[in-house]
Batch of 4 targets.
Target 1
Amino acid sequence: MTPQKIIVISGAGSYPRLVVEGAKRAGVPEVHVLAVRGSAERATARAADFVHVEGVGHTLAGVKWVAENGYDGAILAGQINPLSLFRTTFDAETRALLASLRTKCAHSIYGTLVNEFEKRGVKMLAASCYMDGNLPGEGVLTTRAPDEREMKDIERGMVVMQDMGRHDVGQTVLVKDGMVLAVEAFEGTNAAIKRGGKLGGKGAVLVKGAREGHDMRFDIPVVGLKTLKTMKKAGVTTLAFQAGRLILLDRDEVIAFANRQGIALVGMKTDLPPAPLRP
């Protein structure tokens, strides 16, 4: 059954806009946006039927507002700058919530946020919902496929990435000639790419994915044109990801850019379930 009114909690980038547009194409009559001040883009607001703005420092106020306005579902989409956790002045409620967390990582922070929504009767939908065409499957997307050495590094990276995920460290690992050059921590994918590229030089492989049992309601792996441009500057020549478990933004532009730069993009088969496209 198609929801009648949903809300997209929007961070930065084109991802939230694509969710809004995808939901409308799927027949959702009303698609609203809770825009994170300073992060959500104007294009996302223009695509929505209604927009409410809230600052990162007033997170629980935003949760309460959503709960009071009768939505059939909510979707978390878009990036929040990790620095905001260190530089934002939080209200007393949000500060107390963050202080209650024994460990602070994407999984614990977003997981707690999801729980706050659901405690108030707001159903959180998978972050992949309505992203039809943006979750590539198994196989090579580009004209160039990974060579033999790159495939060995991909295999190494897939194992390391799963181990990282068990500790909720990050979703990205860079490998070259069997050596792990960088693993993503709280700084994000692009910063990890820059570190790994600086260390290993041209030819590194990037592997990105979600651990077994990952909660697809939040923090689903995402790659876009900015990621590919960062890879190019860092000399990273291949991106491997779990088939059906990564959101590829700006798909046509990403593949075209990768082909021009000789970067290989490949979806790797796993035994893990694909991210859902509908509630």
Target 2
Amino acid sequence: MDKQQLLNCVRAAQFAMHEMVLYLDTHPYDAEALKKFDVYRLRYMEFLKQYEKEYGPLSASGDIGSNGFDWVKNPWPWEKEAN
């Protein structure tokens, strides 16, 4: 999986997890929804961990490792070629 595909997986899992949170705000005792939330949360954490291991942290709260703030070493969004 390349960098963009993996980032899309992170975003999709995060979106699904967030949608379940919104649903659970109004249906806190829905056991099936709680199970789905756990599945999406675990999937998100797996994709996030894989992405940060291969490409560096996505946020300041991400795993910065022993190299400090790795994201500064990558091109900034405005330095990338337009798609």
Target 3
Amino acid sequence: MKKTGSVIWGIVLIAAGALFALNALNVTNVDVFFDGWWTLFIIVPCAVGLFTEREKTGNIIGIAIGVLLLLCCRDILSFSMLWKLLIPAIIVIIGLKMVFSGLFGNKANEIIDKIKQNGGETKVGCATFSGCDLNYGGEVFEGAELTAVFGGVDCNLKNAIIEKDCAIRVSAIFGGIDILVPDNVNVKVSSNCIFGGISNKTASHKDAPTIYVSGTCMFGGVEIK
């Protein structure tokens, strides 16, 4: 993903530099500073994020906001109409995300529900206006539910015993969650995020157990490393 991001941003910068050079040489006469040009600082990064980041919802919302602002600056829409359309647009995008998540299933929720149906219990960590440090070194790990609301949760699985696929359900609302995982596992993420996101910095390993992470982030974030 990092290589893809570098390539895409490189192409964007080359195109921008070439356009400025052609304008300077009077080869082209493109009005770079058109009405609403500043909205490109919202639209372009979010568009690049669609190709470089696993979580797409926040980027789609960013593009929608940027395009609506651009239309207002071009007098195609009024700013009063913007506020009427902005909230419905965000709600529709989140709804579509939830529909697709439901249609294609959520492995993390399936694993956690199965654990509870079989009489088992998941690990629980909750931080509300506080911090929470969890360390499962030497313990058999099957699943966990982590919540951070105006707080932070640190979950250390580096030395946990992971013998099969397991799951973590996360919720970060104006808070943050850090998850440290062993080097010999895979991590797959499925999330619904609004102005937040889940960052997965782990590498893939063939024939290794998988930790499925499902979560919701609202003005919060989760980092897996």
Target 4
Amino acid sequence: MKVTGLITEYNPFHNGHLYHIQKSKEYTDADYIIVVMSGDYVQRGTPAVIDKYLRAQMALEAGADLVLLLPVAYSCASAEYFAIGAVSLLDKLGIVNSICFGSESGNLTTLFQIASYLAEESLEFKENLKHFLKMGFSYPSARNKALLSSKEFSITSFPSSKEPKELSNLLSEPNNILGIEYIKALLKRNSSMIPVTIPRAVSHYHDTILKEKFSSASAIRLLLKQTESFPATIAQAVPFSIFSLYQKYYHKTYPIIEDDFSLPLYYQLLKEDSFSLTEYQDLSSDLSKRIFHELDHFHSFSSFTEHIKTKQYTQTRISRCLLHILLQLKTQDYTAFDYIPYARILGFKKDSAPLLSAIKSHANIPVFTKMAKAENQLQESGKKMLKQELFASNLYRKVQEQKFHISLPHEYSRKLLIK
């Protein structure tokens, strides 16, 4: 049995994701595709535009055999924690042969060389990183500069005359960054899973204009948020098999945006001070002070993010930090969990019974389908993570209910998705 794992957000699902599933099967000759998917909150520091259940259903319709939930502590974390959480989950299933990810580079050798160097974190690299951070560069920029200025680091994939510019561009692309982190996580876990990369198809990650066939998730989100009636033009950007799902639930359960969470975020911020804010993941002392002292300028989630950002603290970093405060995700939680203490199944295909049997036999963590039965299978760290997940999911659900005047099932009564 050949099993390939995909680490995804599907925020929202589009033709590029279908391409990823299809090419992953082709590149790895996989019998089954397991998708690890972010839940109701995503890595860029915002709520998902469509809830996890509908996105999981889309993934199954598009060819995934099994969809697992990436716990919220990791789904809205930095690239490093996002990657190590997802890789750990796949690794602990005990049956995954490879992970396949998209990248702008498409050059696995180059990504592997960079990841191998960064996984070691030499003294020279650490000193360079501190130097550039003190100069006021954001962490991603400081890391890139530290890498480029490290004498120990060399890469044969780039001619020396072009190396700095090309390597800097490579390190600035979001899918390359995640790909490097996936490989780093594999190396740190000494995992037997093999990394495979597929060149990203056509559109750029940050493109905001809908394009024929391959459009970015950013462009689709923008269109869904800006229109009052269903934007039928997205038909060109999403698989035919799931277009009806987009139509059916538009303005019934989605779109959800960060400003839908403005009031609960402000409530949480009012409870904090500059010292207590430092307990949350990704919040430095300086950033905590900035958030606390600028609180009078809070009008909405998005506008406050825009107000707080600086050259050193990017908009994504700020948004992610605010989401950590909203969801009460603290730094100590990440070390307490030993990464992933359980696997929660959101849905699967009926004909994937052999895959489920193999997971049951080989996984070294509890695997469950029903929240009601989960606690009896978990140790204290797992129960704490599950409690975080429940809080975050219930908050998202209530926002949906109030925005669209509907009633949705509680997490404990949600039915497993079976295709």
